[in-house]
Design goal:
single chain, alpha+beta, two-stranded antiparallel sheet
Length: 72
């Protein structure tokens, strides 16, 4: 009886390795291949750096906030 239980667990473990582990490895490789395409830019008013995605673009310049944009 105990031998049958152990055999079932071994078979289930092998099925897990064959089907599910490879999918997980592919997900990990895909996450490593993602490139962060964000650049830090300097605000011309206060000279602080802000993410280009979060900055406010006006006349070809990136500003960190509306206050800096209005106080240029």
């Amino acid at each position: 009886m105990l031998l049958k239980v152990i055999a079932v667990f071994v078979i289930l473990f092998l099925v897990y390795i064959l089907f599910f582990k490879k999918n997980r490895e592919k997900d990990i490789k895909n996450k490593k291949n993602e490139i962060i395409e964000d650049e830090m830019v300097e605000c011309p008013t206060c000279k602080t750096y802000v993410s280009q995605k979060e900055a406010i673009l006006s006349n070809g310049k990136f500003y960190c906030s509306k206050d800096c944009l209005l106080n240029k």
